[in-house]
Amino acid sequence: MSTTSADRPTTRETPRYGDRVFAGLATGAGVLILVVLAGVAGFLLWQALPALTAAPEDVRGGEGLFSYIYPLAFGTILTALIALVIATPLSVGIALFITHYAPRRIALALGYVVDLLAAVPSIIYGLWGVYVVAPASVPVATWLSQWLGFLPFFGPDPSASGRTTLVVGVVLAIMILPVMTAVNREVFLQTPTLHEEASLALGATRWEMIRMAVIPFGRSGVISGAMLGLGRALGETMAVAIILSVAAGVHLDIIGTANSGTIAADIALQFPESSGLDVNTLVASGLVLFFITLLVNMAARWIIARRAEFSGAN
User: Fold this and answer.
1) Are 50 and 277 a contacting pair, CB within 8 Å?
2) What are phi and psi of 96, to 5 degrees?
3) Residue 31 within a domain
4) What total of structural domains would you count in the chain?
5) Does 13 reside within a domain?
6) Residue 207, in any domain of the structure
7) How far apart are CA 239 and CA 171, in angstroms?
8) Is 254 exposed, middle or buried (0-12, 13-18, 19+ CB in 10 A)?
9) Percentage of the chain with pLDDT > 90?
10) What domain range includes position 302?
11) At a CB cut-off of 8 Å and minimum separation 6, what does 187 contact?
């Protein structure tokens, strides 16, 4: 006489001890991240409170906290956006070459080289920018000023030293290139093989296959990688502090002698010699940078979360 599944006794498996320990450790790690993030935000807010409540004439610069931080925030965002504009097409092109054009050995070697760029200290990038990129940018800046001087970004008086916002943007672009390329490469590799083969079977060339199948599939990944690179560029300190010739105020001219500073570089340069309310002012600017970077990374995670899972065959 056969027994059905309904007649069989059901036993409820108890979680193993190792599973419970691992689940507890994973939960604790997640909670710890939130606690650390909240602690950093609370510490910055507590240290910045004297500057937030101080009279405008007592704050560094004598014109109030907003007047001090606003030019720095503008310079931070401007240099990061220049880096993003330069690095995004480069990272997409490198990732496509590695995943769909280069032979396997060359692709592996090139992938290692790109990843190694992330291991170079930022101060090395700063020295490279001062002694190599800055002098080489002077003829380019002169040409831009001559032919595109009607735009507010290219003024009539380019810097003779080359230590400009444009050079900082170029150096930051090289610095954020590894993380953006790594994200794009992994996203392009996840493109369903069925989509690629179907495009080729219908007579599409390799470029047409990439344009119609690979790039649309990885669009959200490219955007999220760009946001992660933007977050890295916003917080860069030493390279910017070494290269940039800073002038007070907001300056749209990216090739001139007057350049808006960045929050991170200003903190690095001013903090050792500051005391009292000046320290609180620098911490307040750091709080602004903290929230800008947090918003950028939250936007990146939101874009990644919205990426729909592919339901077909790979």
Assistant:
1) yes
2) -65, -40
3) no
4) 1
5) no
6) yes
7) 8
8) buried
9) 46
10) 65-306
11) 95, 217, 218, 221, 222, 225
The conformation of residue 308, written as its DSSP 8-state character, comes to P
Question: How many angstroms separate the CA atoms of 171 and 236, rounded?
Answer: 11
| Cα separation values, 60 from 76, 100, 283, Å | 19, 54, 12
Interval 106-146: pLDDT, tens: 988 988 888 888 889 999 999 999 999 999 999 999 999 99
Residue 167 has which token pair? 């050079």
Q: How far apart are CA 163 and CA 85, in angstroms?
A: 19
Banded model confidence at residue 8, pLDDT cuts 50, 70, 90: low
What does the pLDDT look like over 135-178, one tens digit per residue?
999 999 999 999 998 898 998 889 999 999 999 999 999 999 99
* Distance, CA of 5 to CA of 153 (rounded, Å): 75
Please state, in angstroms and rounded to a whole number, the distance separating the CA atoms of residues 78 and 167: 12
List the beta bridge partners of residue 158.
Answer: 256
197 inside domain: yes
Give, in order, the Cα–Cα distances in Å from 123 to each of 154, 172, 304.
27, 12, 31
Put residue 203 in one of left, alpha, beta given phi > 0 → left and psi -120 to 50 → alpha: left
Closest to 83 measured CA to CA, from 168, 163, 159, 153: 168
pLDDT digits (tens, 9 = 90+) for 56-69: 888 887 888 899 99
Cα separation values, 58 from 53, 247, 253, 295, Å? 10, 21, 30, 30
| Residue-wise DSSP of 206-241 | HHHHIIIIIHHHHHHHHHHHHHHHHHHHHT--HHHH
Q: Biggest alpha carbon distance in the chain? A: 98
First to last CA, the chain: 46
Supply the CATH number for residue 133's domain: 1.10.3720.10
What is the predicted pLDDT for the residue at 49? 92
